[in-house]
Amino acid sequence: MNRANAARPILWNYHLSTCSWRVRIALSLKAIDYEYRAVDLLSKKGGDQFSTQFTKLNPKQEVPILLIDNNLFTQSIPIIEYLDDTRTSGTKLLSSDPVKRAKSKIIAELINSGIQPYQNANVIKKINVQMGKVKRIEWLNFYLNKGLKALEANLKNTKGRYCVGDEISIADLCLVPQVYAAKRYKIDVTKYPLINSVNLELEILPNFIKAHPDNQPDSLKNNN
Amino acid sequence: MSLNKPILWNFYRGASWRVRIALAFKKIDYEYKSVNIDKGEQFTKEYENINPNNEIPTLQIDGFNLTQTMPIIEYLDETRPSEPKLIPVDSYLRCKARSIAEIVNSGMQPYQKVIKRLGKELGEEEKNARLELSTKKAFKAIESILAETSGKYCIGDSITIADIFLVPAVHAARLQKINLNHYPTISRITDRLDQLPEVIQTHPKKQVDFQQS
After folding, report:
1. Pairs of residues, one from chain A and one from chain B, whose beta carbons lie less than 8 Å apart
2. Contact state of B70 with A69 under an 8 Å Cβ cutoff
3. Which of A29, A213, B37, B211 is most buried by a 10 A CB count?
4. What is the pTM of this model?
């Protein structure tokens, strides 16, 4: 496949979506220039992800979607693995050692399927409606702390400077956005010293800063 | 690599089935250790040492404790490269196979857990309606990927991780009495998968800890 002739990639995403943020970090680490298409998940019309147009792109009505190499891809973890499989430039996101790979992916999935779905905007809206504000806070405290506790225990066996040893991996791309989200929900992340320490190392890196919600075209900070 | 037989800590129903299927396809003999989640056995100190997230399954293999069904299955495929190759070699097809698996893994199953947790507040009828909607959305997305990639199975004519994740998901949908006529490719593929010994032997009904609900 001649990638040099492929059009500029397009990323449909939302500045605060943690799944989108992971992919933004990956694109940045791979030095891939892309067009940013904002999908306002919380728009007053009820969320742009529910529009007919967007549903055609992704019947699951979710971000991120990446158009790259003339193909549309969904699901952040496989997208990141695709970028790593196909682009040798920039940072390697997955080790070639199967054990290290597994350790990185376990952490990524702990976050991707074990924490994020329990606290994303859609779910929290539903909890608020069904259970009210007090229960919503209880729910967030429970699931975020449960997930972070498991993550902290995992890091005991894998942590170096970053999640797995001293090299950045897909685990780190998932950790930073999740920690940010937890802090937004007023979770005290310093209770998890290993997570906190890895996050501090990562959040100062230029490629992570570039991908930060505050630095995106649809960021509230850019649109006041 | 450790010479001890791998140990799979799991339960007859749920996501554990995915790993049992993968182990069967890779012809890996293992010891089945039952963790009865109805009795809260995932919270024992013994099990927590193995899996600090108090979840199943955990696969103890090659001296490691592997958790999370996707990395477990990918590790098996990378370290036991015999056919079938559960992760395709082509990077586009790899991504599509993984995306199908992820739609089930993180795009459907956790949301169904959320809906079930809200069961009391929603009431039985609303809960079931939402479970159905969540399944249908996921299946619609999978069906649209399959339009590009399927042959006999999800990705061409070879078994992959996508098929492995699809089997338990369709099984659960059938138990919920969801009409799968809108998803003809999923139905056709699953009917074929259901005939395979690796799927039959690992079915919940055939496990030592199976209980009729």
Report:
1. 117
2. no
3. A29
4. 0.95
**B-chain residue closest to A153, CA distance:** B52
For tokens 């056919």, the residue is B83
Q: What is the CATH number of the domain that holds A23?
A: 3.40.30.10
Task: List, for residues B4-44, the tens digit of each pLDDT value.
Answer: 899 999 999 999 999 999 999 999 999 999 999 999 999 99
Q: What CATH code is carried by the domain that includes residue A102?
A: 1.20.1050.10
Instruction: Tell me: do A132 and A63 sit in the same domain.
Output: no
Instruction: Check: CB of residue A164 under 8 Å from CB of residue A100.
Output: yes
Per-residue pLDDT at A75? 95
Mean pLDDT in residue range A27-49 = 92
**Which residues 94-123 in chain B show a CB within 8 A of chain A?**
94-96, 98-99, 102-103, 105-107, 109-111, 114, 118, 121-122
CA-nearest residue to B94 within chain A is A82
Mutate which: A74, A83, A123, vs B, most B CBs within 10 A: A74
In this prediction, residue B116 carries a pLDDT of 87
State how far the Cα of A37 lies from the Cα of B140, in Å rounded to an integer.
Answer: 24
Angle at CA of residue B83, ends B97 and B16, nearest 5°: 60
pLDDT number for residue A2: 46
Asked whether residue A102 falls in the same domain as residue A204, the answer is yes
Domain encompassing residue A114:
98-208
In a domain, residue A80? The reply is yes
Would you call B146 an interface residue with chain A, using a CB distance cutoff of 8 Å?
no
The arithmetic mean of pLDDT across residues A152-163, rounded, is: 96
Domain count, chain A: 2
- Residues of B in Cβ contact (< 8 Å) with A114: 53, 55, 68, 110
Nearest CB among A81, A113, A153 relative to B106 is that of: A113
Nearest chain B Cα distance for residue A101, angstroms: 8
Tell whether A165 and A203 lie within a shared domain: yes
In a domain, A213, yes or no: no
Residue B213's alpha-carbon distances to A70, B86, B96, B135, B208, in angstroms, are 48, 32, 35, 21, 15
H helix and E strand count, chain B: 10, 4
Distance separating alpha carbons of residues B155 and B193, to the nearest angstrom: 13
